[in-house]
Amino acid sequence: SKELVKRDLKLVILDRIDNPAAIAELKAINPKVTVSFYPYDVTVPIAETTKLLKTIFAKLKTVDILINGAGILDDHEIERTIAVNYTGLVNTTTAIMDFWDKRKGGPGGIICNIGSVTGFNAIYQVPVYSGTKAAVVNFTSSLAKLAPITGVTAYTVNPGITRTTLV
């Protein structure tokens, strides 16, 4: 987010947790850039996501990039791990495709899905997490192959262990 605002890109943050200090920090980096926040839980039904996106598109007119970065690492919470790491990502992506898909008159766009190296090399201690990240890699790969007809470029970023609240 810090790098995006440095490049004069409007930033819309969708998250379960409102963090006014983080928003203020982003605005301070580049005061001429608009940074806005909307409460969002990726596990909501796709209709709710579409409704939120309609609000955002009506306000901003264009959205160029979607970064799907929600994720949890808790193999004891199987359904929630799948819901956040995979189903939520698929639903959010599917909802924004209604706005971007050139076959529907959209302008195209860019989707960046956050995967993990575990999507390629599973960690046996967290098989559910690893499985969701493998699903993200394959889902995104399929979307990427559709880019010539949808106008939507899709790719994954697959970091190794990273210092975040996840770990």
Description:
It is an enzyme of class 1 (oxidoreductase). InterPro entries: ADH_Drosophila-type, NAD(P)-bd_dom_sf, Sc_DH/Rdtase_CS, SDR_fam. It catalyses: a primary alcohol + NAD(+) = an aldehyde + NADH + H(+); a secondary alcohol + NAD(+) = a ketone + NADH + H(+). The protein is globular. It has one domain: Rossmann fold (3-Layer(aba) Sandwich). The protein starts with a helix and ends in a 10-residue tail after the last strand. The model has no long low-confidence stretch (mean pLDDT 93). It contains 6 helices and 5 strands. Helices cover 46% and strands 16% of the residues. The strands form 2 sheets. The protein has a 3-stranded parallel β-sheet with strand order 3-4-5. Strands 1-2 form a two-stranded parallel ribbon. It is an alpha/beta fold.
Provide a compact summary of the structure.
It is built from six helices and five strands. With 167 residues, the chain is α/β, with parallel strands linked by helices.
Poorly predicted tracts of residues: none
Distance between the termini: 20 Å
Can you give the mean pLDDT? 93
* Helicity, as a percent range: 40-55%
The structural class is alpha/beta
Shape category = globular
Give the CATH topology.
Answer: Rossmann fold
CATH C-level class is Alpha Beta
- Largest sheet, if any? 3 strands, parallel
The count of DSSP E runs of length 2 or more, i.e. the number of strands, is: 5
Helix segment count? 6
Output the helix-strand order: HEHEHEHEHHE
Strand arrangement in the largest pleated sheet: 3-4-5
- Strand portion: 15-25%
CATH architecture: 3-Layer(aba) Sandwich
